[in-house]
Amino acid sequence: MATYFDLCRVQGLCSCNRSCPLSQLYFCRHCYDVRCGNCVSHEVDSHYCPNCLENMTSAEAKMRKHRCGNCFDCPSCGHTLSTRGTLALAPATGAGSAGSTSGDSPLTAQKTYYLFCGFCRWTTRESGIPDQKSPGGWNETSNPHADRIETLITEYRHLAAKEKTERERTKYKKRTYILSLVRSVLLLFLALIFNLPRTFHVQRFTLLFLFPLQEKFPVLTPRFRRRYSNWGSYGRETNSGPEIKISAAEAQSITESFNVDELVNKPFAFEMATSALQRHMAPALQPTETRNLEPRHKALAVKRSLRCKKCEHTLSKADFNPSYTKFRINLSAVCHVPDLHFALPPSALADPADSTDRNRVTPLPLPTLGFNSVPASSELRVKGFSMGKASNVVLIVSNPAHRVTTVRLRQLTAEEESVKLAEFFAKNGNVFGSGNTYSTVKLDLPVCGIRLAAKSDASEYNDLMTTESTNEFKDDDPKVIAYRQGHKVGINTGLTMLTSGGVLRAAVVMTFDYLNTTTAAASSVLSAEQRAATMSAVLAASGIKEVGDDPIVSAIGKGMEEEGDKRDVDLLFLLDFGTC
After folding, report:
1. What is the reported pTM?
2. How many structural domains are present in the chain?
3. Are 165 and 143 in contact (CB under 8 A)?
4. Measured between alpha carbons, how far is 516 from 374 in angstroms, rounded to an integer?
5. Where does the chain cross the membrane (predicted)?
6. Does residue 368 carry a pLDDT above 60?
7. 192 and 340 share a domain?
8. Exposure of 556 in the CB half-sphere (CA atoms within 13 A)
9. Are 219 and 339 within one domain?
């Protein structure tokens, strides 16, 4: 079955002809189209520390070099360091003269702090860093190349300003050749009209002819020509700026000789040498021994908002508070577009050639999902499919909206695939070969539209609740509808292979009716609809009242139809059923 742990089985095609899972797509309710991570513009809203959740502005984050001043990462393993306190004996203050004469100074217990890693057990004491009297204020070793880096940044900044000035100077350069070109064209034009030879008489006639024109059209006056020749350069400096020289690096002379005997005869301590990852985590110092490791400040995280590049409307905007996980604006496709999955019968799943994974004791780690990262889909071997014989496959469609939605499914023909998937094949030609056809199977999809029940909060937590006991979907054809469970519906689909063997793929267009409501009306109506749908679902499950006869839901549905803009939206899905 295509689930969220196997995202590559069913992918949607965005507006830039890039296939992505539905969980990584966004739906623009102004363009009525889906967008991927490449179709949106990313804007940084705020910077915060992921450990202490300290929020700061962009200017403050830039001044701190995008690092938190209170939290540290372990230089050995990269995990967050924790502060631990301990008691240490220190000489008492104010007993200097008495203690110095007797030789015995009184000691008092003082609390000191050090950094400790709970994962690899590394402490600051291993690097010889003394304990601090306060939890903060850890000294950081300065970069030995800080002055050189600052000098280069300043020089290249001056060089960039000079290059910008040069581009502006060449852009507004005087164009005197235009006047001579206009005069030549005018002389030729007059010679052709009056059929005169190209002699001095033509020039004299032109001058006599231009005098009345100059009074009527001031564009030909010398005043305009002088003004035109100075266009763009008025008030601008046209002289080249001073030459900028980048100071060259100076190699340091090696004064001490290299001791070969110490390198050859001294045994190498592997446990004292740092790894390449540990050196790369501290690029300024690059310690070669573990005793030189120092805690590094934790990098800041950002909260960003996504904006549609076509209509420039916001698609996703998180809350400003770092501790909040809610979104102010969330137009993810999984919240607005019906989700499509498929389920294969157990008899169609082939046994793996190697049964070592079945006897595995240690479970495999789950993949880490990033913004543009999709875990690689494992190879799915199927059996029981043959050419000319239809096999049953169940397509599962779930409704994310809190209203009844109508969905129609249709498979693309070979001619439509060659047109709509031309750019997709150009980008992924090495994966699908040189052909311009994606589908290798034929799906027997229902012609009529399928109504999906509204999503309710009760159905999310009750897997046993179904909509079969209601009269709302009593006209379902059992040959088409396999089952209904809450806002999900299973559709019986016949799968017929078009080629012998290979990957079983199909391109399906899903058309659903989307109701776009205004922001103010949508929040009030949608919240009321959620409460009414939840109460109706609970009453239907208990057998007190049927959802189809609830006047509250019908009244709210009519109100939403009046408030919103309803239209049909098409979305192309690429299905991969496995390898036969």
Report:
1. 0.69
2. 2
3. no
4. 30
5. 177-196
6. no
7. no
8. 22
9. no
